[in-house]
Amino acid sequence: MNIIEDLQWRGEINQQTDAEGLAKTINEHPIALYCGVDPTADSMHIGHLLPFMIMERFARAGHHPYIVIGGATGSIGDPSGRKTERQLQTKEQVQKNVAALTAQMTKLFGDAPNTHIVNNYDWTKDMTLLDFLRDYGKLFNVNTMLNKEVVASRLSQGISFTEFTYQILQAYDFFHLHEKYDVQLEIGGADQWGNITAGIDLIHKLRGADTKVYGLTIPLMLKSDGTKFGKSAGGAVWLDPKKTSPYEFYQFWFNQDDRDVIKCLKYFTFLDQVEIDKLANQVKDEPWKRAAQRRLAEEVTKFVHGPEAVENVERISQLLFTGNVQELSTEEVGQVFNNVPTTEITAGPHNVIDLLLEMGVDSSKRQAREDVQNGAITVNGTKITDVNATIDPAANFDGQYVIVRRGKKKHFLARVNN
């Protein structure tokens, strides 16, 4: 199947401006296409990842993607999906985020020889206000702009002139990329439809209505329960390992519901239809094995963080399964137990019963003694059965943490105040 047929099978196409024309153009020759991301943060999260995975699919099919980092558009703010005016970032923060996103994109997609990463600040920074108004603002009808969903949804609350003109800047991006690199297709989220069509209209006005340029949006991804995909209990799932550790990242994918995992495999991996259909059958026939979830977690973690990260996550998971947590590094403890009940304790030796009460493992000394005597308590990987045992935090994890496990699965973490 060709790239469009593959995207349709994966369910990744929401709208197209001219489906027949785009299919014909792609069948005739490789095309250049683009997708942009604004530097609203110093990392993307998985909600950003999907359109760029599609760009990578185009690259692997022989096409020429351009990834646009929005140094200019990010300076004024996209009103899409917002009910109130966006708080502008400082120029210094925008530049810092641009550098971080450029490095992240280069790591993820820069190896492909036909993928290019550019910054729209480079082609807007020298444009004067008069040039902008005379050459491009004159071509935009205010009534048409007001009818764009992203603007219309804000009219009751109000929208600034700055955010109102965002669609002109994004339209100019498409025009510039078409002029310089013969870009013919823009890809974006469903909320970008108005901005994408504004770019196509601008090109048609400047270069003729028969100019072959197209737009394609991806659907808003919802989980089977109707909630928005991409959030964990701790918030956004970031691609930066300092914001979301590879272990947490892997676990997010591994914990996907059986009803969602095949959709995720289609959207976020490069597995073909044969492999995904096989995994779908395993979900149906042997759901307890979670083979599809494991493959999903492996594939996405490998793509974002590399094969070594997958190996390390699997090593950590094995240590947790066997209870050998003492083999974890101090850094790994902070990552793995990030979301378990956590308290702070003082440095120095602690009686095990007092420690269990202080950490909230047990609510009474009687219960704590019973748990210890019954062998239900493990501290830093060692089972404790003596109610008079002394726990010294300095003995493990550079004196920074104490890990208590009650029963087989319930973990508690203490951070040591040194």
TrEMBL record:
<keyword id="KW-0694">RNA-binding</keyword>
<dbReference type="InterPro" id="IPR024088">
    <property type="entry name" value="Tyr-tRNA-ligase_bac-type"/>
</dbReference>
<protein>
    <recommendedName>
        <fullName>Tyrosine--tRNA ligase</fullName>
        <ecNumber>6.1.1.1</ecNumber>
    </recommendedName>
</protein>
<dbReference type="InterPro" id="IPR001412">
    <property type="entry name" value="aa-tRNA-synth_I_CS"/>
</dbReference>
<comment type="subunit">
    <text>Homodimer.</text>
</comment>
<keyword id="KW-0648">Protein biosynthesis</keyword>
<dbReference type="InterPro" id="IPR036986">
    <property type="entry name" value="S4_RNA-bd_sf"/>
</dbReference>
<dbReference type="InterPro" id="IPR024107">
    <property type="entry name" value="Tyr-tRNA-ligase_bac_1"/>
</dbReference>
<keyword id="KW-0067">ATP-binding</keyword>
<dbReference type="InterPro" id="IPR002942">
    <property type="entry name" value="S4_RNA-bd"/>
</dbReference>
<keyword id="KW-0963">Cytoplasm</keyword>
<feature type="binding site">
    <location>
        <position position="166"/>
    </location>
    <ligand>
        <name>L-tyrosine</name>
    </ligand>
</feature>
<dbReference type="Pfam" id="PF22421">
    <property type="entry name" value="SYY_C-terminal"/>
</dbReference>
<dbReference type="InterPro" id="IPR054608">
    <property type="entry name" value="SYY-like_C"/>
</dbReference>
<comment type="function">
    <text>Catalyzes the attachment of tyrosine to tRNA(Tyr) in a two-step reaction: tyrosine is first activated by ATP to form Tyr-AMP and then transferred to the acceptor end of tRNA(Tyr).</text>
</comment>
<feature type="binding site">
    <location>
        <position position="34"/>
    </location>
    <ligand>
        <name>L-tyrosine</name>
    </ligand>
</feature>
<dbReference type="GO" id="GO:0004831">
    <property type="term" value="F:tyrosine-tRNA ligase activity"/>
</dbReference>
<keyword id="KW-0547">Nucleotide-binding</keyword>
<dbReference type="InterPro" id="IPR002307">
    <property type="entry name" value="Tyr-tRNA-ligase"/>
</dbReference>
<feature type="binding site">
    <location>
        <position position="170"/>
    </location>
    <ligand>
        <name>L-tyrosine</name>
    </ligand>
</feature>
<keyword id="KW-0030">Aminoacyl-tRNA synthetase</keyword>
<dbReference type="InterPro" id="IPR014729">
    <property type="entry name" value="Rossmann-like_a/b/a_fold"/>
</dbReference>
<dbReference type="InterPro" id="IPR002305">
    <property type="entry name" value="aa-tRNA-synth_Ic"/>
</dbReference>
<feature type="short sequence motif" description="'HIGH' region">
    <location>
        <begin position="39"/>
        <end position="48"/>
    </location>
</feature>
<feature type="short sequence motif" description="'KMSKS' region">
    <location>
        <begin position="228"/>
        <end position="232"/>
    </location>
</feature>
<keyword id="KW-0436">Ligase</keyword>
<feature type="binding site">
    <location>
        <position position="231"/>
    </location>
    <ligand>
        <name>ATP</name>
    </ligand>
</feature>
<dbReference type="Pfam" id="PF00579">
    <property type="entry name" value="tRNA-synt_1b"/>
</dbReference>
<feature type="domain" description="RNA-binding S4">
    <location>
        <begin position="350"/>
        <end position="418"/>
    </location>
</feature>
<comment type="similarity">
    <text>Belongs to the class-I aminoacyl-tRNA synthetase family. TyrS type 1 subfamily.</text>
</comment>
